[in-house]
Amino acid sequence: MRPGPIWPATLECGDLILRPIRYRDKREWTEVRSRNREWLAPWEASNPAPGGALPDYRQMVRSLKIQAAQGTALPFLITERVPRSASPIIVGQLTVSSIMWGSAMMATLGYWVDQARAGHGIAPTSVAMATDHCFQALGLHRMEINIRPENGPSLRVVEKLGFRDEGYRPRYLHINGEWADHRTFALTAEEVPEGLLNRWLASRA
Questions:
Q1: Which domains does the chain have, with CATH numbers?
Q2: Which residues, including other chains, have CB under 8 Å from residue 56's CB and lie 6 or more apart?
Q3: At what angle do helices 152-161 and 196-204 cross, to 10 degrees?
Q4: What is the per-residue pLDDT for 197?
Q5: Are strands 74-80 and 89-100 parallel, antiparallel or unpaired?
Q6: Euclidean distance between CA atoms 124 and 181, whole angstroms
Q7: Which of 1, 51, 182, 193 has CA 20 to 30 A from 40's CA?
Q8: Nearest residue to 140 via CA among 98, 173, 177
């Protein structure tokens, strides 16, 4: 069963805020991505079509907005309140995609975080916030994250949060110009009755 409108949504935990991506975020988003080009390049999705290119910022946001309106995606920016800043700054992006309703009630989650803020718990906290929203507010049953085996930081995120390793997917997604193997990690709502964010924060206390 699908709930009513699922978007827009804003989630908060301390200084972290997950909020909808906007066209007017282009300048700040582009600056953050530019600084992190080398950091993110090995894990970037690519277009396998001959001569294929990724969408530009406006095309990306338009596509995500359409998916959100259709109930198949939640396109969040990860923002953080910091001293001496009038508004929260962009420190990453998190997208819940491929939302399936009916008998599946599941989704896939992907994210990236500014290298300057890596190691401060931003990625696991954001993943936990989004997962709880999907389980508790949307009624989804399963969340899946697919990670390249070489991506140590992302592997640590799912390990910290207790996602199950469900095995290898050879040549699963086109990443950085080639078909790349991935490992699939998943969590179901029954595994975190207390909420994933509560469990994560308790483990850090």
A1: 11-204 (3.40.630.30)
A2: none
A3: 100
A4: 98
A5: antiparallel
A6: 23
A7: 51
A8: 98
Of 157, 109, 153, 103, the C-alpha closest to 133 is 109
Q: Is 58 exposed, middle or buried (0-12, 13-18, 19+ CB in 10 A)?
A: exposed
First-to-final CA distance of the chain: 36
- Stated pTM of the model: 0.95
pLDDT at 85: 82
CA 181 to chain centre: 19
Tell which residue, 74, 79, 72, 68, has the closest CA to residue 104: 72
pLDDT mean values, one per 10 residues, the chain (205 residues): 81 97 98 95 88 89 96 97 90 98 97 93 98 97 96 95 96 90 97 97 91
